[in-house]
Amino acid sequence: MKKPIVVSGLKPTGKLHLGNYLGAIKQYIDFQKDPKIDNFFFIADYHALTQKYNASEKYDEIIEMIADMLSLGIDPEKATLYIQSDILEIANVSWLLGNVISAGQLQNMIEFREKVEQGQPASCGLLNYPILMAADILAFKASFVPVGEDQRQHVELARDAARNFNKRFGETFPVPQGIYVKGLRIKSLDDPSKKMSKSLPKGCLYLSDTPETLRKKVRSAVTDSGTEIVYDPENKPALANLLTIYSEFSNRPIKDIEKDHKNSSYAVFKDALADVLIDELSDFQERKAGIIKDKENLRKIFSEGSDKARAIAAGTLKEMKQKTGLF
Ligand code: TYM
User: Given 58, 246, 248, 266, which is the most exposed site by the fewest CB atoms within 10 A?
Assistant: First the structure.
């Protein structure tokens, strides 16, 4: 019997941060432990071109992200790893899906509006971003898409694309299901009303940050009024965010961390959090320094993955062409 398929991607637009790791990559690692699942994880390089960037830096950003994925434990023996733009079929699938999604739906996407407000050009690439993402998912007939909460609207659009295509041209795609870590949306350290992202660098903890930088950023994270270390996202959103990061990184329940820090000041708590982060991230950084040296090997892993991914996407494209009445 065919195994259920999991697809997810990371956009190479600079360094990975804690939100990417806790919201998405940790889930990839859980999925790849399950031998009953077929996993596809990729670098969404076409998506990265939908915002302002420096062409001379993009190649290095892609290599860094490949090394990040492998150093974090994504295993080419257990998942198919590839670069989106290597699979030409995906862009073709995207074109065909464009006919079953309305332009109004794209114009109303939150991320499109936010990016334009932040000063990104309102290009056709940015507008069509969600259709390309739907193609990433549907080209593999994925059942599950592990992503952070911020991608929910995009996954919903992919679900609409699957339903609309099936309705118009006959049953072709399973309707993919987004898999979100419940309530986990890592917030910026300097403004807990915003998600942690590269566009707010001061409140963003990067996986590549040095111990000194990590400690400095954690120490200067905003906290809420009061002195008690308790998880209360309504009234103490900044502290709740720090407790979530602590719990996720130490793999310990929030309740236990609260207990340990019953009598701690915010300063002591923050230092303990910095220790946990420094410990975990130094190991990762050491592994990455070794892995990135052998660029040939990185290329080989991803090109083998691309061959496998391409064959599947080509099968889907062929079926779509037949169903839509093409030659
Ligand atoms: P990207 O590269 O912006 O983010 C990668 C993953 O990290 C998650 N994430 C977060 N999770 C929790 N808290 C945060 N603060 C946080 N910030 C980022 C994102 O939800 C994402 O899962 N559009 C996607 C890339 C993509 C994709 C796909 C994903 C392209 N095609 C197909 C899944 C399937 C993106 O921009 O991710």
Answer: 58
